[in-house]
Amino acid sequence: MQTADRLKKIPPYLFMTLRNKINDAKKRGVDVISLAIGDPVDPTPQPVIDALCAAAQDPENHRYPTDEEWGMLSFREAVARWYKRRYDVDLNAANEICALIGSKEGCHHFAMAVVNPGDTVLVTDPGYPGYRPGIWFVDATPYDVPLKEENDYLVDFGSIPSDVAKKATAMFLNYPNNPIGAVATRAFLNDLVAFARENDIVLCYDNPYSEVVFGVERLSFLNAPGAKEVGVELNSLSKPYNMTGWRIGMASGNPDIVKAIATSKANTDSGVFNAVQYAGITALDECDADIDRMLELYGRRRDKVIATLKELGWKNEPPKGAFYLWVPVPKGFTSAEFCDFMLEKCAVVIAPGAAYGKNGEGYVRFSLTIGEARLDEALQRMRDNLPKMEFA
What pLDDT digit, counting tens, does each position of 37-47 carry? Predict the structure, then answer.
């Protein structure tokens, strides 16, 4: 039976591969602790749960979602209030915001909305693995833009060949960055807008970690003057409000691109369940204090992991954003080999850097989304079972 050739370009999805490793080890009776997947175990704020339960009792919400391709106007208005309050960004709820079934979905709809077959699309490397499949699905070609430590893992626009920049039609990028934890600055965002305008490139700024920053200014891409002229920002309620399973987010920015995304959605899905949108309104309007508690929690976990890594020979500084640690592998290992070594010696799963792009080889990613007790146990296993590490 024939399947589409485009599927052959897609490697096994990283997080399914990790889950399979975990499940295989559990079948062998191993008590595995996963520090690999960015899925918070901490509960969704109670007011959000209460809002969902109340809205689910209303039969009107059992029908197709209201204004299904755009999302309920009341949800979009809440998004606009949130952006104004958190980032001092003005958005028109009528035509500059579209509800998403999570920002991951938005990446695919962005590609459907703005990329044609044969186009070149710039993608940061390392980068979130979900960007490339969306590009392949529309028969376009990703072009890897390396993120390097000497540039604070920010895109060096001057390193992109001018002929590639002129040929490219779109670009995916993500700060605070998954997997690295690097953060953008206002100066960088200004340079990004100038680069996009100069080369007629449409930007997809994927920003689901916008609230997870430590000691630096939280930023939206839309803070940059002219941002709405060249792109959209994707965001999500998953990370700030521990709502990964709820699947709700938003695309905001250029009205033509937002409309194109809504058109793609109208012909793909039926939108976000109204009750989830009502719960999202509660999160956006009432749960700022939960974000503050979340940051305190991740900061404490981050410091614990950094301290253990330093005991074992690493010299990493704490990242400024996201809830991950991006660390080099010890001498003599590839990223995949070190992940296997960690699983064998400690029954702890981490993510190989190579899964995020060829420039991720030589690194691994630790996630901080596990509960305190299990994190402490994982770190104790590392201290008990790993030798002092040496690095090239």
Answer: 899 999 999 99
Q: List residues bridging with 123 in a β-sheet.
A: 144, 172
Query: What is the C-alpha separation between 5 and 155, in angstroms, rounded?
Result: 32
Predicted confidence (pLDDT) per residue in 139-149, tens digit: 999 999 999 99
Q: Give the residue range(s) of CATH 3.40.640.10 domains in the chain.
A: 46-286
Beta bridge partners of 125: 146
Closest by Cα among 120, 185, 131 to 153: 185
Q: Buried b vs exposed e over 309-331: b needs ≥16 C-beta within 10 Å?
A: beeeebeeeebbbbbbbbbbbbe
Q: Which two tokens stand for residue 28?
A: 């062998």
Look up tokens 């709405």; give the residue: 228
SS3 string of 226-249? CHHHHEEEEEECCCCCCCHHHCCE
Q: How large is the greatest C-alpha to C-alpha distance in the chain, in angstroms?
A: 63
Q: Taking the CB of residue 337, how many other CB atoms lie within 10 A of it? A: 13
How many Å from the N-terminal Cα to the C-terminal Cα in the chain? 49
For residue 63, the SS3 value is: coil
Contacts for 267 with CB less than 8 Å, ≥ 6 apart: none
- CA 345 vs CA 32, 290, 316, 340: distances in Å: 11, 36, 22, 9
Matching residue, tokens 């998403």: 100
How is domain 5-44+289-385 classified at the architecture level of CATH?
Alpha-Beta Complex (3.90)
